[in-house]
Amino acid sequence: MMAAIAAADSGADVCLIEKNEKLGKKLFLTGKGRCNVTNAGDRETLFQNVVKNGKFLYSAFHAFDNRAVMEWFEQAGCPLKVERGDRVFPVSDHSSDVIAALDRELRKRGVEILLRTQASSLGMEEMPPGEKAGKRVTGATLKDGRFLEADRVIVCTGGLSYPSTGSTGDGYRFAREAGLAVQDCRPSLVPFEVEESWCRELMGLSLRNVQIRLTDGGKERYQGFGELLFTHFGVSGPLALSASAWGVNGRLFIDLKPALTLEQLDKRLLREFEENANRQFKNALGGLFPAKLIPVMVRLSGIDPDSRVHDVPRRARREFGALIKGLPLTVTGTRGYEEAVITRGGVSVKECNPSTMEAKRVKGLFFAGEVLDLDALTGGFNLQIAWSTGYAAGKGEKFL
Question: Does domain 2-187+338-399 have CATH number 3.40.50.10860?
Answer without folding.
Answer: no
